[in-house]
Amino acid sequence: MQRSTKSTVIVAAIAMAAFVTSLTAFQGQAPAAAARGQRPAGAAAQTPGNATPAQNPPATPPAQAPAAAAPQKPLVPVAASSVAANPDPYINEFVTLTGAVEANLTQTSFSVDQDKTKSTGKEVLVIAPTMQKQAEQNGYVTVIGQLVKFDEKEVAAKLKDYKIDLSPADIAKYKGKPVVLATAVINNAGVDIAKKPVPPMTADDLTLQKIMTKLPGAQAAIRKSLDSKDMAGSKEQATLLKDSFTQIESFWKAKNNEEAMKFAAEGKSHADNILVNLGMNNVDAAKTSIAPLGATCGSCHGKYRERMDDGTFRIKTAS
Ligand code: HEC
Predict the structure, then answer these.
(1) The domain that contains 125 carries what CATH number?
(2) Quick count: other Cβ atoms within 10 Å of Cβ 169?
(3) What number does the ligand 1 atom closest to the CA of 210 have?
(4) How confident is the model at residue 53 (pLDDT cuts 50, 70, 90)?
(5) What ligand 1 atom has the least distance to the C-alpha of 267?
(6) Domain stop point among 126, 157, 186
(7) Phi, psi values for residue 137, rounded to 5°
(8) Count of Cβ atoms closer than 10 Å to residue 38 Cβ
(9) What is the pLDDT of residues 237-268, one digit of tens each?
(10) Confidence class of residue 116 from pLDDT cuts 50, 70 and 90?
(11) CATH number of the domain to which 273 belongs
(12) Which atom of ligand 1 is nearest to the CA of 241?
């Protein structure tokens, strides 16, 4: 049942896409409701929960998603109207939802429905935390993200760094209604208006980067030196690591970030242990500090480093 509903909704989504295309050609002379995936009037009451428009013959559904291995669930294409009419099959799915922007509610949220010209009263809420500019009212958009039922607590749990900015009235209005937590909002010019620009590196990013870029090399070098029992080389690299961690610690001290200072201090103490053990000619003991030293890099990066879309890194501030 769920499956067949989905297939027919996909058919509706395709009809929707066809509608969008034909709309451009016909300057708004909309084809019959069939193309919009609408149910004939009166049918709704007789077929509750069934999104199949009577006049849409069952067709072979397209492959639901590209065969390429995706890290998450495959995206389900759907029209806003289908979701509004019968959200349940889509809850928790990752969707590409197409619709027309009904209202820009806040900087980061808007509602979509299916009809460009009138309010159908069947809107789907979209929350896109990274929205860069408002969507064009009545313009068609394709949003990509997970569809859930709107609930303040659930949205807060799913979008950790996001603060819901809807009015209390809208929060009440959309409670329990479908919402897409969008990571992309593609407008009718094909531009993703929820794509975060890559900010330039700040002076702080650059200061830290100068220290950081030496570290992977130093880690590799000290492993090699210890393996070949090159005491002088090992000491040199351990000293470089220790000095670097000292600099990292004072960097974060100036920022009043005690947790980051602690990560740096841990790294420093592991580098210190290496030096102490090398002083006692105990290479094997020195080696045992290599892994925990590396772990401090990961702890700090997990919390205070952010990777940009272009692969460069920044200090992560919002946390
Ligand atoms: C206390 C926090 C902290 C510790 C400890 C730390 N890092 Fe970093 N690291 C950062 C931050 C923040 C950035 C992002 C800003 C930047 O690029 O400098 C970063 C960036 C980097 C980069 C990317 C540099 C670039 O821009 O190309 C590398 C490589 C790196 N760290 C390696 C290491 C290694 C290896 C260690 C451990 C031996 C380490 N870091 C320990 C916070 C830390």
Answers:
(1) 2.40.50.140
(2) 8
(3) 18
(4) very low
(5) 5
(6) 186
(7) -60, 135
(8) 21
(9) 999 999 999 999 999 999 999 999 999 999 99
(10) low
(11) 1.20.120.10
(12) 38
Residue that finishes a domain, picked among 135, 153, 186: 186
pLDDT for res 122: 81
The ligand 1 atom at the shortest distance from the C-alpha of residue 245 is 5
Provide the mean pLDDT of the chain.
82
Give 208 Cα–ligand 1 centroid separation in angstroms: 7
Q: How far is the CA of 244 from the centre of ligand 1 (A)?
A: 11
- Single-letter residue type at 125: L
Q: Which of 206, 301, 310 maximizes ligand 1 atoms within 8 Å of its Cβ, making it the mutation to test the pocket?
A: 301
DSSP state, residue 137: T
> Residues lining ligand 1, judged by CB closer than 6 Å?
205, 208-209, 212-213, 215-216, 219, 248, 252, 260, 263-264, 267, 296-297, 300-301, 304-305, 312-315
Confidence grade of residue 120 (pLDDT, cut at 50, 70, 90): low
Q: Phi/psi class of residue 281: alpha, beta or left (left: φ > 0; alpha: ψ in -120 to 50)?
A: left
Sign of the torsion formed by the C-alpha atoms of 162, 165, 171 and 176: negative
CA distance 124 to 79: 10
Query: Has residue 63 got a pLDDT over 50?
Result: no
Q: What is the CA radius of gyration of the chain?
A: 28
Residue 174: inside a domain: yes
Q: Domain for residue 256, yes or no?
A: yes
> How many A from CA of 286 to the centre of ligand 1?
23
pLDDT at residue number 118: 66
Q: Which residue has the higher pLDDT, 271 or 120?
A: 271
Residue ranges making up the domain that contains 213: 203-315
In ligand 1, the atom with minimum distance to the C-alpha of 266 is: 5
